[in-house]
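Field guide to reading this record: the first block holds the primary sequence, the second block holds the structure written as discrete tokens, and the final block holds curator observations. Each block starts with its own label. This record concerns Serine/threonine-protein phosphatase PGAM5, mitochondrial, catalogued under organism Gopherus agassizii.

BLOCK 1 — SEQUENCE
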Amino acid sequence: GVGKQPAHGAGGDAETRSAGAAPGLLLLPPPASCPAAPGWVERPAGGGGYWDSNWDRREPLALINRKKKNEETGEEELASRLDHCKAKATRHIFLIRHSQYNVDGRIDKDRILTQLGREQAELTGRRLASLGLKFDTIIHSSMTRATETTDIISKHLPGVKKISTDLLREGAPIEPVPPVSHWKPEAVQYYEDGARIEAAFRNYIHRADAKQEEDSYEIFVCHANVIRYIVCRALQFPPEGWLRMSLNNGSITHLVIRPSGRVALRTLGDTGFMPPDKITRT
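BLOCK 2 — STRUCTURE
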């Protein structure tokens, strides 16, 4: 939940096979055995091979009124209007999980970074600075552990604007499949947190605006549940699978959103820049 989250993912190794299935063939359960998804999770009728090109509602053809076409210029005007709506730049999204913090804190302000957590944030900041990229902004969760992580990282990125938001606060995004026994939030928590975390995804994860001329590099410092849900949504994987992934403290996840709306995951939870004795997952 908001206070505590699982130390590690669970349930991602099991496969469902029938006795006669060929080795390596994963058989999915019939749809009836899967729980109903919340209303904001849109499911195409097609199947696993489907890609919704208008996933962020910024597909140029969906933005223009095709009926309002000038009869004299016809397709030329349509092409011109399409071009006006097309993204030109690529967005690079760096999702950073906060560093290790005091999990015994009773309220959020007591859940400050540990000494090791501060060292992790320094290492993450140095890593980001070493990439030599022109970062545009650091948007961070308003929770204490994310704010403190941001303050340390930002020392290595002077001049990069910091923005705090409640949308990226930790929570329970959607009931995980398969379920886990060690973490069972109340249904109302999924109802409240899920809508907020989905709103964060819609607000921040999309192709570049048509007015954006140059590629952008943006940092988001937040939480494991939020990052894992965002990755599933961005790649159009079933969002219920978010808990099958695990993220270390201070890790870097890099998403790329092309002008076409195609999305690629460059890295997931990278902490290869940290010495092994500095890596934690609390």
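BLOCK 3 — OBSERVATIONS
The two ends are 13 Å apart (CA to CA).
Residues 1-33 have pLDDT under 50 and may be disordered.
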